[in-house]
Amino acid sequence: MEYGIQLYSVRDVLPEDMEGTLQKISAMGYRFVEFAGFFGKSARDVKAMLDRYDLRISGTHTGWQEIVENWEETVAYHKAIGNKHIIIPGAELGTKEQIEAFVETVNDIQPKLQKEGIRLGYHNHDFEFKANTDGIVPYDEIVGRTNIYLEIDTFWAYAGGKDPVEMMEALKERLIFIHIKDGYENGDGVPLGLGTAPVKAVYQKAEGMGIPMVVESETLNPDGLTEAKTCIDFLISLEK
């Protein structure tokens, strides 16, 4: 099995030492990475570091505003580093007006990105599964009114009252990656194997579906690299 990591997990060290961090991530056994910012590094430098440490880029978390406001620069950068998936990490969807604006925007930019060889996706938290101030469930609107791909964050789905395994099956035609992570029903996250989220069932489902698994561990306790190692060790233990 090959595993990826969302580099937000190591945000305590990545901005100041991207090269060293990528080297350590690769040495742990991660084979692909998902960026959440490039911290002033050129596309050429990022691509060189990925090549140097035998890492692939699975995607980036990039806000929809950045895509719209810096279209040419954003598309060119992602193509230069070989990225084929831009994933919106979340959006303000608390009102009907915000949802309408979001739906209109993604339905406009998705086909344009597709023409550039880039697929547009959305990453959930827990709030998208709960009715907003206008009584609308944002995730239902995203699924029903757009064609964007989905990166199911299985922990946030769990914290939002959903069964992530059932979601993966129901949305399999639009599922490109999952975030595999752990934590508690109240939304407190922990490294893999230390919480109550159905991580093993999620793992088995993803393995059976052939869906790439991206680790995310957010608490930096005691630091991001330690958590990253704990997570991949746990995943490897599930292979046995």
| Largest sheet report | 8 strands, parallel, barrel
Radius of gyration: 17 Å
Treating each run of at least 4 consecutive H or I residues as one helix, how many helices?
10
Quantity of strands, as a count: 10
- Which segments are poorly predicted (pLDDT under 50) over 5 or more consecutive residues? none
Structural class: alpha/beta
- Summed over residues and divided by their number, the pLDDT gives a mean of 97
Order of helices and strands: EHEHEHHEHEHEHHEEEHEH
How do the strands line up in the largest sheet? 1-2-3-4-5-6-7-10
Q: How many domains, in number, for the residues?
A: 1
Describe the structure.
With about 240 residues, the protein is α/β, with parallel strands linked by helices. The chain has a single domain (about 5-240), classed as TIM Barrel (Alpha-Beta Barrel), CATH 3.20.20. It is built from 10 helices and 10 strands. The chain has helices spanning about 20-30, 45-50, 65-70, 70-80, 95-115, 140-145, 155-160, 165-170, 200-210, 225-240, and strands at about 5, 30-35, 55-60, 85-90, 120-125, 150-155, 175-180, 180-185, 190, 215. The strands form 2 sheets. An 8-stranded parallel β-barrel has the order 1-2-3-4-5-6-7-10, surrounded by 4 helices. A two-stranded antiparallel sheet has the order 8-9. A hairpin with a 5-residue loop joins strand 8 and strand 9. Helix 8 (about 165-170) packs parallel to helix 9. The mean pLDDT is about 95.
